[in-house]
Amino acid sequence: LRALGAGVLEMDLEGRILYANSGACEHLGEKEASLIGQRLPLFLDPRAGEAVDALLLEFRTMTKPHRFRTPLRLRERDIWVQICAVLDAEACTSLLIILQDDEGIVAPHN
Questions:
Q1: How far apart are alpha carbons 20 and 6 in whole angstroms?
Q2: For the residues 24-49, what does the mean pLDDT come to?
Q3: Average pLDDT over residues 58-73
Q4: Which residue has the higher pLDDT, 70 or 16?
Q5: Side-chain half-sphere of 39: how many Cα atoms within 13 Å?
Q6: Whole-structure pTM value
Q7: How far is the C-alpha of 66 from the C-alpha of 63, rounded, in Å?
Q8: Are 31 and 38 in contact (CB under 8 A)?
Q9: 105 pLDDT band (50/70/90 cuts)?
């Protein structure tokens, strides 16, 4: 995960960052040590943060592999965010978040 060009985060079901590779640190403008334990929605546009919190509620009840991809507003730019459920014994235990730049995004924001 450290070598991937995309930003990769692992989050718990409360949205706290457990792991961040260098790509994610670059996207979020922070070092890994300062990201660990922080909630991802704090780094997003307020509307995007609310959307992520709503998705977290849905993912908590997942019993089968699931992923969701959406454009979100990260600070001053739009990025693609893919959220994947990490399952253990048919229960979602954490989330894998992939952050990718995409200049073609037209994301809704105010």
A1: 11
A2: 90
A3: 86
A4: 16
A5: 13
A6: 0.82
A7: 9
A8: no
A9: very low
Dump the DSSP string for 25-90.
HHHHTS-HHHHTT-BGGGGB-HHHHHHHHHHHHHHTT--S--EEEEEEEETTEEEEEEEEEEEETT
Q: Judge residue 41's burial from the number of C-beta atoms within 10 Å of its C-beta, 0-12 exposed, 13-18 middle, 19 or more buried.
A: middle
pLDDT for res 75:
72
Residue indicated by tokens 């979100």:
72
Lookup: tokens for 9: 């985060």
Partnered with residue 78 across adjacent β-strands are 73
* Under 8 Å between Cβ of 62 and 92: yes
